[in-house]
From TrEMBL:
<protein>
    <recommendedName>
        <fullName>U8 snoRNA-decapping enzyme</fullName>
        <ecNumber>3.6.1.64</ecNumber>
    </recommendedName>
</protein>
<dbReference type="GO" id="GO:0009117">
    <property type="term" value="P:nucleotide metabolic process"/>
</dbReference>
<keyword id="KW-0539">Nucleus</keyword>
<keyword id="KW-0694">RNA-binding</keyword>
<feature type="domain" description="Nudix hydrolase">
    <location>
        <begin position="1"/>
        <end position="132"/>
    </location>
</feature>
<dbReference type="InterPro" id="IPR000086">
    <property type="entry name" value="NUDIX_hydrolase_dom"/>
</dbReference>
<dbReference type="GO" id="GO:0005730">
    <property type="term" value="C:nucleolus"/>
</dbReference>
<dbReference type="GO" id="GO:1990174">
    <property type="term" value="F:phosphodiesterase decapping endonuclease activity"/>
</dbReference>
<dbReference type="InterPro" id="IPR015797">
    <property type="entry name" value="NUDIX_hydrolase-like_dom_sf"/>
</dbReference>
<dbReference type="GO" id="GO:0030515">
    <property type="term" value="F:snoRNA binding"/>
</dbReference>
<dbReference type="Pfam" id="PF22327">
    <property type="entry name" value="Nudt16-like"/>
</dbReference>
<dbReference type="GO" id="GO:0006402">
    <property type="term" value="P:mRNA catabolic process"/>
</dbReference>
<dbReference type="GO" id="GO:0005654">
    <property type="term" value="C:nucleoplasm"/>
</dbReference>
<dbReference type="GO" id="GO:0016077">
    <property type="term" value="P:sno(s)RNA catabolic process"/>
</dbReference>
<dbReference type="GO" id="GO:0140933">
    <property type="term" value="F:5'-(N(7)-methylguanosine 5'-triphospho)-[mRNA] hydrolase activity"/>
</dbReference>
<comment type="similarity">
    <text>Belongs to the Nudix hydrolase family. NUDT16 subfamily.</text>
</comment>
<dbReference type="InterPro" id="IPR054754">
    <property type="entry name" value="NudT16"/>
</dbReference>
């Protein structure tokens, strides 16, 4: 087990993909920050107020068309994070439906390649894997050389799993 001083959260979505808490916002009806705060309440059961200061980046979605993906990241204390984790399984209305669970992201690489590389080799919704890498770099949670190494290892792991004979056995 690795104890880290910094924690970073994502979630397992209903469709089995990893992604961030959030959802669709109609800018004609509410501000992006108000919409995101509402979605966070539904998906995590906790009140987190997002402001323009938490804004990170925007990208055009490849699908569905005409969807703009706005990404925010918010720094909170460990106590607030623990509170969110508790609320996510107790009061969040989306728990067990749209969200199967919050998950911490391993920010370390083990000697055997476990940790962040394995995490990055999973499947992610839309551009959320790129959003994760952007946030880890911007927030200084993983150093650029370690991040680069983790991305490289993750690619190798994807190939290893595909060529693993036991993987083929499971498919037949
Ligand atoms: O974490 C994310 N990062 C980037 N794009 C996402 C993420 N989650 C969802 N999306 C995008 O938003 C679209 C709508 O997502 P979802 O179906 O979860 O919205 P909803 O919660 O409002 O129903 C997805 O098709 C995908 O393109």
């Amino acid at each position: 087990m690795v104890k880290t001083s910094r924690l970073f959260q994502m979630q397992m979505r209903f469709d089995g993909l990893l992604g961030f808490p959030g959802g669709l916002v109609k800018p004609s009806e509410e501000s992006l920050e108000a919409g995101l705060s509402r979605e966070l309440q539904e998906e995590m059961g906790a009140s987190v107020s997002v402001t323009v200061n938490d804004y990170v980046s925007s990208h055009l979605a490849q699908s569905p068309p005409r969807l703009i993906l706005h990404f925010y990241s918010k720094k909170i204390t460990e106590a607030e994070l623990l509170e969110i984790e508790r609320a996510a399984v107790s009061t969040a209305v989306d728990h067990g439906f749209e969200v199967l669970g919050l998950t911490r992201v391993p920010l370390y690489t083990l000697r055997n390649g476990g940790g962040l590389p394995w995490f990055l080799s999973h499947s992610f919704i839309s551009n959320s894997r790129a959003q994760l890498l952007e946030a880890l770099q911007r927030l200084g949670l993983v150093s650029p050389p370690n991040l680069e190494e983790a991305v490289k290892k993750a690619e190798e792991m994807r190939h290893t799993v595909k060529s693993d004979p036991s993987h083929r056995q499971y498919l037949c």
